[in-house]
Amino acid sequence: MSEAYIVSALRTAGGRRGGRLAGWHPVDLAATLIDGLVARTKASPETVDDVILGCVGQVGEQAANVARNAVLASSLPESVPGTSVDRQCGSSQQALHFAAQAVMSGSMDIVIAGGVESMTRVPMGSPLTLAKKADMGIYMSSGIRQRYPQTELFSQFEGAEMVAAKYGIERGALDEFALESHQRAIRATQTGAFDDEILPVSVLDPDSGEQIVHTVDEGIRFDATLDSIASVKLLAENGRISAATASQICDGASGMMVVSEAGLKRLGVEPLARIHHMSVMGHDPVIMLEAPLPATHRALDRAGMTIDDIDLFEVNEAFAPIPLAWLQSTGADPERMNVNGGAIALGHPLGASGTKLMTTLVHGLKARGGRYGLQTMCEGGGMANVTIIERL
């Protein structure tokens, strides 16, 4: 079977809710990211075979196939198609898998995979909220209720609390992990670790009213302390998780160009990494967010690898208990996981997070001279994608 190579990987710096990226229409933000990938590789726009974008809130400005609309707003010719993916938080990681599968099958040679989410302009849960207002019903059908009678709605918040309880992770450990996420993100920012992966975009400075260039993740708390994190109110009575130990609402876009060997020759570029393994797994939708644990074990087994073969890990910090439980389950070295911080500090732009994390992983392996990297993330409905790459 043919190989799939990553030749370009970019992301925008995250924007806080109502922050610097709030003025960007998500279609235009995704289009700018697409143009950045094309420019980085000096590819002729017409050589792109397809654009696959992840997006969770596919309503309003993100409705009507946001990927195709991003193509039409970009420098790509209208002959380039586009399709949108919803695998919840893993949407753009799944977009990467689809792109890799396309070039590995030989049906395509150059594909852009990525994601976009404006959580300011299309608030989280908008499809459900609007459906409720229009009295259109909810996804919990009678068939689902018969199978899972113990739950009214599947809840990520409740699932995260269940994971914390199951693995014996107390609030103090969650608060300490959140502080470490900010501290790692601060170090990465101050040492320029993100410079090569961030696509600068022009934004309106709300303070000065002037156009400035957005290059620093807006969610990082440069003044974070353990006391300030510990003072944040818990999300549930008698719970363990607070807003400070959960991922931040974030606006952003991310993406990568994935090519076959023929695509490499056509572009005349050197690959950054090779897709070594990709899989996805379903799990219990009630505890929901535990899926990355068994999915990682299965992925390593299928790849014929052990956890010690992996140099860097990106495990999405949707809620602090998830990466901490993942460390318990896998026995991975915590010094190799989320080395530049995670979603608690940098934000979680839902449909864009998959290729956002992968972009950081690709560049992190290059900077540290590592060979293999593994990415996984919990997803709504009880699923998890796992991707293993080899730096070249």
Automatic annotation (TrEMBL):
Signal peptide: none annotated. It comes from the Bacteria. Coiled coil: none annotated. The active site is at C89 (acyl-thioester intermediate), H348 (proton acceptor), C378 (proton acceptor). Keywords: Acyltransferase, Transferase. The keyword Transferase applies. Residues 270-391 form the Thiolase C-terminal domain. One of its GO terms (molecular function) is acetyl-CoA C-acetyltransferase activity. Residues 5-261 form the Thiolase N-terminal domain. The keyword Acyltransferase applies. SUPFAM superfamilies: Thiolase-like. It is an enzyme of class 2 (transferase). Its EC number is 2.3.1.9. Belongs to the thiolase-like superfamily. Thiolase family. This is Acetyl-CoA C-acetyltransferase protein. It comes from Salinisphaera shabanensis E1L3A.
